[in-house]
Amino acid sequence: MIEPGLYHLLFISTALFFIGVYGFFTRRNLVTMLMSVELILNSVNLNFIAFNKYLWPDRLDGVFFTIFIIAIAAAEAAVAIAIIINLYRSHRSIDVENTEGMKF
Amino acid sequence: MLNATYIALIPLLPLAGFLLLGIFGRKYFKNTSGIIGTTLLLISTLLALYTAYGYFFEYGKVDGIYQKLVPLKYTWLEFSKAVSIDMGIIIDPISVMMLVVVTFVSLMVHIYSLGYMKGDERFPTYYAFLGLFTFSMLGLVVSSNIFQIYIFWELVGVSSFLLIGYYYDKPSAVAACKKAFIVTRFADVGFLIGILILSFYSGTLDFNTLIATLTSPESNGYKNAVAASFLGVSALTWGLVLVFVGGAGKSAMFPLHIWLPDAMEGPTPVSALIHAATMVVAGVFLVARLFPVFAISSPGALGIVGFVGAASALIAAIIACTQTDIKRVLAYSTMSQIGYMMFALGVSKYGGEEGLGYTASMFHLFTHAMFKALLFLSAGAVIHFIHSNEMKDMGGLRKYLPITHITFLIACLAIAGVPSFVGFFSKEEILLAAYQHNPTIYWIALITSGLTAFYMFRLYFSIFWNKEHHPHGEHHGEGGFAMMMPLALLAIGAAASGFIPFGDFVSSDGTRLETEFHLQFSIAPVVLGLTGIFIAMWMYKTQNNKPDKVAASLSGLYKAAYHKFYIDEIYVFITQKIIFNFIGRPAAWFDKNVVDGLINATGNTTQWISEKIKSFQSGKVQQYAIYFLISVIGLALLFIYVWK
Amino acid sequence: MSGSTIIFYLLAALTLVSAVLAVTTRMIFRAAIYLLFSLIGIAGIYFWLQYEFIAAVQIVVYVGGIVVLIIFSIFLTQQAGEKLPKQKPGRQLFSALAAFCGLALVMLQLAQHIFVSTGKTAIEPTVTNIGNQMLGVDDNGYALPFEVVSILLLAALIGCIVIALKTKPNGIMNKEQGISNNEGSGF
């Protein structure tokens, strides 16, 4: 078996990213779309940490970015949940097909 | 003394009358507009007479030849050094003569209308239109530039339209004025093309220069004009024929005569002025103006003029024998007499003795204005009395309308060519000219003059003799002083002006033409005329059934003549079945489906494209995300593999 | 074939399989749990990379905070019971295709690229080091972003409350309607 290196990690993060993208395109439920977005953000975090470890081991920039992304993702998930709850109150469903109001 | 201001005032005074009465007449001059119009025209007439006196007796003649003077010329639109549309005044024998004729007859009509149109709702408008017409006609006869004459030509057409349609709440009047305008306008297309051809080859629009260029065989213009040809006929002939087409339309020559009988829907003084004495002779005037070119450079065109004139004269005379509306009889009579003028020009040659036809034609124009205006105004008095146009409603009116009776009789004698009345002199000269140059036309003219005497006296006897048919209730006298005075003046003119030695003043080349009196030659026409009078007296003086028997015996010809030889029906057929169906409908289809279709297609395509683009903004977030990803992948591919 | 390699592959498999299941399953609660497992897998990878602090943060915030939040929202919007509706097959196919194209493109580029390491001596990502640098104000200091993120969190906090606030007819948001009811409802 090959010793896992940078390329393997990058493969995992890319795959995770595109799985999240697929989920975002396909899911009809707002909450599951939010889950897909979390997957995307996680893949990015993995990317930062991988580069930090293998390409710039003398610096901690990747770590900091990851920390900030996690913090912001948390805030964003909270706001998204608030919006979903608001939407549920007015539409009584969280199907994304019901949110087509802003069209031509 | 040649004073350009006085001459310019002659047409401008009626124009001022038009503007004044047209704009302010309704409000301020309701009762006095007649007086104002008449006064302005009186001044114009005096100025015209003064000009004529000055021209013919003082300064016009140089070395025995009457000059063509241009006292006023204003360059209006300059296309190049040589070609420009000028507004100018030309003074030569025929224009001065026409100035006198037009102003005098117009004055008579103005005075007559004071009585005839009294109490009419739109009295000021009527006088305004009369002023406009007089201005246009006077402008036409003094035009020094062929385009200027075209402008005034159209103005005359417009005035005629306005005056024919004066009673605009009568559908027949509206139809008639439209018909007149459309037919003359149609003829004017030919006129315009003729103008373009002639001015192209002669390189100028000015009459004097144009005539000079196209009559001198050495000039380049002449050579080019004869060299170029279309369908075997030279361009010069085409140009002249097309100009004649315009003149034929305005002068109601066959086959463009259909508007003239219908134009009788207008008030009778209008018929007297426009459709008897002045506007309808505009075509004759045009040919006379361009006569040197016709006679010297294109005898073929002149031949066409002659035959069209003769044909019109004969056909009109035949139709007039059967009509029962007195104004229509007079209308066909006008057409016939103008035919005389036309073919007189057609048989004439240029210069000296040969130019007899020209002088005869102009003389007949002068005299015809007199007696035809007299006929119409007298007919107007009759209509004013009877309130109907039909001969069957009249009869025995000589008791009730004595003055009208006398004037009408004088005019009929004049038109029939009875000796010592004016028509005798002018007709005799025309017949002489025809006899000298074209025997066929001479025989046609002779027969026509017999028919003329017949139908005019048919009219006379049916109105003033015969049995009384009119209702007895409404007799209100003959008509006031305003209506009778012009009749008297015109009657004097009709009786006396025959003795004017016209050849001293008007001739084809400006020199004096000795007109002699050929006694032997005059026998034939006079005998024929008297025969016609007696036949008419025999048939119409008393109530009998001879007219019906004659009509029955000539049934086919009578029917055709009564229906005016079905020419109107032919026109309707041609326009509706042929032009509308084969040209109009396809053109309309093309316009609606192809041209409009193209524009609609552009609009519809744009809308369709925009619908498609609109659907991009569907409101679905996931779709936006898909577009986003695909675009990013596309751009990435582009940047990585295509633009390195 | 060392143990660490095997552990790495196991963790990778866990992450990816859980992720795939999370986006395809039709029961929403299970999706949330699969997401949970996926995040734990990622935390495991962080541990394997010897970035313990990040792994800890991941578990505390992501797993313990966000996934719980998501589960709460599932309950609040009463989705827990029924199966989720299926998406149109065309859409599924197209998205899968698009995602796969993206994946292929990125992997192709990665395979062709040579990553060069700076090769300097590594710094240990210990809590001390991270803490010092985060609040440092020198060249490598992250004090400013730290403060900005804290303001962002404050804004998010207030925003969430305002967005999710229930507006009753005589609630706190409708003061201008002249309420007679002086009950201190809401806040």
Describe the structure concisely for a colleague.
Chain B is built from 25 helices and six strands. Chain B has 644 residues and is mainly alpha-helical. In chain B, the strands form three sheets. Chain B has a two-stranded antiparallel sheet with strand order 1-2.
The gross shape of chain B turns out to be globular
Q: Please summarize the sheet with the most strands of chain B.
A: 2 strands, antiparallel
Strand content of chain B: under 5%
Strand content of chain A: under 5%
**Roughly how many Å is the radius of gyration of chain A?**
17 Å
Low-pLDDT stretches of chain A are none
Describe this structure in words.
The complex is a heterotrimer of chains A (104), B (644) and C (187). Chain A has 104 residues and is mostly helical. Chain A is 74% helix and 0% strand. Chain A is built from three helices and no strands. In chain A, α1 packs antiparallel against α2 and α2 runs antiparallel to α3. Chain A is elongated and about 50 Å long. In chain B, the strands form three sheets. Chain B has a two-stranded antiparallel sheet with strand order 1-2. In chain B, β5 (229-230) and β6 form a beta hairpin. In chain B, α1 packs antiparallel against α2, α3 packs parallel to α16 (356-386) and α15 packs antiparallel against α16 (356-386). Chain B is globular. Chain C is mainly α and 187 residues long. Chain C has two domains: 1-82, Up-down Bundle (Four Helix Bundle (Hemerythrin (Met), subunit A)), CATH 1.20.120; 138-187, no CATH class. Chain C has six helices and no strands. Chain C has helices spanning 3-24, 28-48, 52-76, 89-112, 127-134, 143-163. Chain C is extended and about 60 Å long. The termini of chain C are far apart. Residues 177-187 of chain C have low confidence and may be disordered. Classes of the chains: A mainly alpha (104), B mainly alpha (644), C mainly alpha (187). Chains A and C meet through α1, α2 and α3 of A and α1, α2, α3, α4 and α5 of C.
